[in-house]
Amino acid sequence: MTIFLFFIVSTVIVVSSLLVILSKNPIHSVLFLILVFFNTAILFIFLNAEFLSMILLIVYIGAVAVLFLFVIMMLDINVAKLRKSFLNYLPLASLIGFIIFLELFYVVSQSKLDIADEASVSLNIGDKFLNNTKIIGNILYTDYFLLFQLSGIILLVAMIGAILLTLRKRSGAKKQNIHDQILRKNK
Amino acid sequence: MEIPVLYYLYLSIIIFTIGLVGIFLNRKNLIVLLMSIELILLSANINFVSFSYFYQNIIGQIFVFFTLSVSAAEAAVGLAIIVIFFRKKDSIHVDDINVLKG
């Protein structure tokens, strides 16, 4: 039953990720991207990674995909003009994609991954009474504490960078000048 | 029935290839190019989580957590760059991005 569900979900993922790169309208691309993320969240639940599946829903669909939607709606893109030389790159793209797919497929199909040998299983998921979030927290806040803080710094730098990039001073805009306002004389 | 880990790996390489082809095909649309990069990162995440389940090791999931934060940062900065580029040139064609050409 689970494998049946897996095939349905992965078919939806593959078809909608094809539609992400092939659809004419960028808005449709974003909506199919949301479908891909949603189905990947379902796959993560199959793999006992509930925390990451919820994070995928919140961060990717709730933040990144909506950010994409906002940017597409802000920019007035001429869709027909964008598609003009779409087919120019198709032979090259299919050739390179085919070669890389064949190589990866060969490597994966030759690998002996059918059974995990006992030595490589490190069993820090082993405790069945802890839930997934608790296990991640136990390791993330102790062993990987510095990396966790570093990822916070990366997000801070990205936020400052995005604000700094899109900030602009317009000449006509009305703006509060705090210095003038404080030093204003009462009349 | 247990799902073999190989199926997840096949799914992940299919998504990776689709994302790669998407980078080549959508040379005219920077936003779809960023979405293809997101697809590639997603395929890497599926790989990490499936191996984390397969070897019963939580560290793969922690690495996915870091990948998610980095990709969110990357999407924010990339979209900001697209917005200021559109403001300057009124288009997001890759062909128009040639101001750094010597």
Q: What's the layout of helices and strands?
A:
The complex is a heterodimer of chains A (187) and B (102).
Chain A lengths: L1 H21 L3 H21 L3 H25 L4 H4 L7 H21 L21 H9 L4 H22 L11 H5 L5
Helix pairs in contact in A: 1-2, 2-3
Chain B lengths: L4 H21 L4 H25 L4 H31 L13
How would you sum up this structure, described in words?
The complex is a heterodimer of chains A (187) and B (102). Chain A has 187 residues and is mostly helical. Among the domains of chain A are: 1-81, NADH-ubiquinone/plastoquinone oxidoreductase chain 6, subunit NuoJ (Four Helix Bundle (Hemerythrin (Met), subunit A), Up-down Bundle); 127-166. In chain A, 68% of the residues lie in helices and 0% in strands. In chain A, helix 1 (2-22) runs antiparallel to helix 2 and helix 2 (26-46) packs antiparallel against helix 3. The radius of gyration of chain A is 24 Å and the shape is extended. The N and C termini of chain A lie far apart (81 Å). In chain A, 20% of the residues are buried. With 102 residues, chain B is mainly alpha-helical. Chain B has one domain (5-89): Helix Hairpins (Orthogonal Bundle). Chain B is 75% helix and 0% strand. Chain B has helices spanning 5-25, 30-54, 59-89. The radius of gyration of chain B is 17 Å and the shape is elongated. The N and C termini of chain B lie far apart (60 Å). The relative contact order of chain B is 0.13. The model of chain B has no long low-confidence stretch (mean pLDDT 87). Chains A and B meet through helix 1, helix 2, helix 3, helix 5 and helix 6 of A and helix 1, helix 2 and helix 3 of B.
